Amino acid sequence: MIMRAVVACLLLVLAGNVHGDSPKVQLLQPRPILVEGVQFNLVWNLIYSNETTYDPDTKLYSRVLWEGTVLGQNEVDLFVENGTLRQVNSISEIVIDERNAQNIVVESSVTSDFASVESGTQELFLVPGAVTILSPIMAIVVAVATREVLYALYMGTFFAALIVSRYDPYQAFLRVLDTYLPQSLGNIDHAFVILFTWFLSGLIACISKSGGSFGVAEVSRKFAKTRTSVQLVVFLLGFVIFFDDYANTLILGNTMRFVSDALWVSREKLSFIVDATTAPVASIAPVSSWIGFEVGLIQEQIDLLLLRGEELSGVNENAYLLFLQTIPSRFYPIIMLFFQFFMIVARREFGPMLGAERRAIDEHKLVRDDAKVVDDETQSALMPEEGTPLKWWNGVIPIVIVIFLVLLAILLTGRSNAEELGLPVTAENIFGHGDAFASLMYGGFTTTLIAWFMYRIQYIVDDALVFPVVYWVRCKSCPGRPLMTMNQNLTAFIDGIKGILAPVLVLILAWAIGLAISDSGADIFFASALSGSLDPRALPALTFMVAAVISFCTGTSWGTMSILFPIIVPTSWYAARDSEIFILTISAILSGAVFGDHCTPISDTTILSSIASRCDVVHHTITQLPYALTVGCISVLLGYLPVGYSAYADYWGLVVCCVFSMVFIIFVGVRVDHPKRVLDSMTISINYLSSLYSRRGGKSDEEMEEKNQAKSFYVYDPDYDRDFVDILRLSFWKPSTWKKWLCCNTDVEQEEEMMVDHIADEEYDPVFYDSSEDYDEESYMKESVGMAMGSGSLGAEGAPPVTTATQQRSEFPE
User: Fold this and answer.
1) Which of 199, 406, 489, 573 could form a disulfide with 452 if both were Cys (CB 3.0 to 4.6 A apart)?
2) Residue 530, SS3?
3) 665: left (phi over 0), alpha (psi -120 to 50) or beta
4) Is the alpha carbon torsion for 486, 488, 490, 492 positive or negative?
5) 3-state SS string over 709-765?
6) Cβ(559)–Cβ(506) under 8 Å?
7) CA count, 13 A, side-chain hemisphere, 714
8) What is the three-class DSSP state of 212?
């Protein structure tokens, strides 16, 4: 009897505990700012008493209350699949149509009637959606007004902090300094990015100071014999010097300017090739000074989305690998590279560039009469010392080593991490779990040390580089001086870091504004607005255009990425939750920023390209703008729009864009060396509008004719016109033409040799050097790198006479 009574009491106690104490509610801090009328989620921890037990079939009931109104509720199993008690619960799609501070209550109970309930209270702060976009708008306005991205990013961060601080300017000022900036520097991935950027910039400075970069360019100049070949050499060198856009611009413009001048390539054309192979190449190169910045921005947004509990299905959480996935859909930089390559080999131009090229050929004017050629005093830090031999291996070997070491480090760290996680050692797992940030730093720093040692053991003896091993074997000291001492290496390395100081500051503020904008709720407002009114498949095309406009107004592609990444990237995920749209949108930001950067005259790369090529900045922008706009339109209409709507894959988008670019160039462009000097439709339209404007200004036809008359050395040759071969002429399609081409039975080589001999004639070439002195090509190149040529010697007055029909033409028909 006693035993039965004890068992009965225990059963009653257990039965009471099944529906007794409900778990306590501990609300997790939601986003600092929520948006009025926009859905949000609430998450809370569940805390259980150690003395309470529950039946395995127990349900947990939860609801969210605001001013007595139920905003949301759910019913879940108290035990999860592995038999343990649920530790976290959440309710999504909560909406509050009020603003300012609001109190909500979360109740949790193990009974459906909430008889035994635990609750938690949370104060939320809601703002109108329009307020959240003040921060990026302020950043854009300040950037346009001051043309200084650092001011713009700081003001954008401050305004976002002002919203987060509930409109308290004093607290906002403090939050920028004690929260957002320290968090930007305190992230371990951010530290890796900054260190790698420093190491690579220092390495590039050492390579330039040793003469290695200029040696690569000098070797390439030996292949430049005609106008087409010199343009191709400059174009291909843009891929060789891929690691930094600034180094690419300054080295190519300065070293190849002499050869292009001798072959009458206009300065506008040289500036375009230099500018169009800087950012497009550096922005898609797996190892470059851009990679740290781009990967850092991508990783920041991935981390934020994961922190908010988003499951990024189909998205690689390794930012470096995600960066590589965006390359096939970087339509603008890739199409721009193909576009200029085909224009070079087809020898066709259109718009203002056609006039510039024919001015250089026919009038022997490399720049316009009203051109303002600017010199750059900041290039001296990259210049080798006087008497330094320019050898290609000092530039190629360090770059090959850094690429090899970075790849090796990714493979080793990926293999190690995959084995620790118990995953099969496959290529996917190795690359997927490789530590890209650490690998970039390992490769950059190790290569720097190797380059220092490499430059130290080379000696300059009688203006030649020698390795002192022979002298050391004989126990003799090597005469001459080291190529670069360790102190010189360190000084050049520090100079390289100094040169990247401003971009690093931009990067830090970019991370800060990203955090602040996210806390202010701008991303969820954009996501809500776009998901309701815009097809997410159109988001990549819209993003490209927005990035282009901002980059054009601000003059900085990095600043544009900094502004758009924290807004657009989360928006693209919330609006579609589609990995393809997500990747395509990231690609659109990176591509659109480069596009706008190409179109604006206030861009740093545009200005540096003009300076290095000794071209007027305005003239460079005017001649480049039609090409950039054409490629931009092709990228949107045939790239991002159809790929976003899944009409075809991204790689097929590249094929379609390239084919259309070829057709456009053939039918819109005109051969520069056309015997009748016909004009393209764009130039005809521009001339017609210009004539209307001139007449409206009161100028007579005689005045306009006198103004348009130029001293041209070109004389129409009927025989040349008869033999001229062009794709739009019937002669191009004759079997005899193709037979000559296939059999290499043409007069092109002979004519090109005549042109080279003609250019090398000292009496013919007073524009470039004094014929009374011995000509030293290497000395001239060093001189041309260090200082600008005056535009006064480039006009028609300094041009030599043309004596033969062959010399009238700078390029010859095939």
Assistant:
1) 489
2) helix
3) alpha
4) negative
5) CCCCCCCCCHHHHHHCCCCCCHHHHCHHHHHHHHCCCCCHHHHHHHHHHHHHCHHHC
6) yes
7) 22
8) helix
Distances (CA, A) of 284 to 294, 401, 630: 10, 19, 20
Beta bridge partners of 74: 62
> What are the pLDDT digits (tens) for 433-467?
777 678 778 888 898 999 999 888 888 877 777 77
Give the pair of three-digit tokens for residue 808: 């009238």
Exposed/middle/buried for residue 500 (C-beta within 10 Å: 0-12, 13-18, 19+): buried
Cα distances (angstroms) measured from residue 369 to each of 340, 494, 793: 26, 41, 11
DSSP three-state, residue 489: helix
Contact 411, 417 (CB under 8 A): no
DSSP H helices in 500-538: 501-520, 522-533
Residues 618-640: tens digit of each pLDDT: 788 889 989 999 999 999 999 99
Cα 16 to chain centroid distance, Å, stands at 65
Cα 554 to Cα 564: distance, rounded to the nearest angstrom: 13
DSSP SS3 for 511: helix
DSSP-derived 3-state class of residue 122? strand
What gap in Å lies between CA 26 and CA 218, rounded to an integer?
A: 69
Helix (H) or strand (E) holding 335: helix 331-346
Tell me how far apart the alpha carbons of residues 242 and 231 are, in angstroms, rounded to a whole number. Answer: 17
| Euclidean distance between CA atoms 271 and 284, whole angstroms | 21
Structure letter (DSSP) for residue 358: H
Taking the mean position of all CA atoms in its chain, how far away is CA 498?
Answer: 21
Helix (H, G, I), strand (E, B) or coil at 72: strand
Quick: pLDDT tens for 125-176: 888 878 887 887 887 788 767 767 678 788 888 988 998 888 889 999 998 9
Q: Which of 630, 748, 642 is nearest to 681 (CA)?
A: 630
Encoded amino acid at 354, one letter: L
Cα gap 660→655, rounded to integer Å: 9
Residue type, 171: Q
Q: Report the SS3 class of residue 610.
A: helix
- DSSP H helices in 521-668: 522-533, 539-554, 557-576, 579-599, 604-613, 617-635, 641-644, 650-668
What CA–CA distance (Å, rounded) separates 602 from 618? 10
Identify the three-state secondary structure at position 32. coil
Question: Tokens at residue 594, please?
Answer: 């480069």
The DSSP output letter for 788 is: P
Half-sphere exposure of 598 (CA within 13 A, CB side): 32
